[in-house]
Amino acid sequence: MASTADIRNGLCIKHNHDIYKIIEFLHVKPGKGPAFVRTKLKSLTNGKVLDNTFSAGHKIDVVRVETHTFQYLYAEGNDFHFMNTETYEQITLNKDVLDAPELLKEGTNVMVQINTETDMPLAVDMPASIVLEVTYAEPGVKGNTATNATKPAKVETGASVNVPLFINEGDKIKIDTATGNYIERVKE
What we know:
Elements: E1 2-3, E2 12-15, E3 18-28, E4 36-43, E5 49-55, E6 59-62, E7 65-76, E8 79-84, E9 90-94, E10 109-115, E11 121-125, E12 129-137, E13 150-155, E14 160-164, E15 172-176, E16 182-186
Antiparallel strand pairs: 1-6, 2-3, 2-6, 3-4, 4-5, 7-8, 7-10, 8-9, 10-11, 12-13, 12-15, 13-14, 15-16
């Protein structure tokens, strides 16, 4: 058993008969009354996010997890297939467990958190950014904007990303996997 002092981002806990991952937390010490911890929890079974407040010193049940590197192989409907890079064991995960499945490119390495008690995969941590090729983008017209304008573009995984007007088909762009936003054009 741990207490609220042990709360940190990425910690997996049992709460209300489900397993949650802590996305955000904030220790609050008001001038009046006891301290508390405000958290944002993501369910690892259904992907729902909920806000919860723990009073200071509240006991929390921590789930022991191991992290392994897996390589994304292919998608089949809502099922995504991954292979452990050390043991070559393959697992299948549902689309709901993934944070940004539309940005996954075949061959991408991800970190999978596995519950050590049940050997069940809990969460998939994508790399911070991913480089993808633009497969379709309408041509941008110079001189018709007053500020930095964007246009929609399709990338090789099928996802749609808003990019600056100077991005064309065939360009490689870096995308933030947490937000799905364009970061920069990659020159090779």
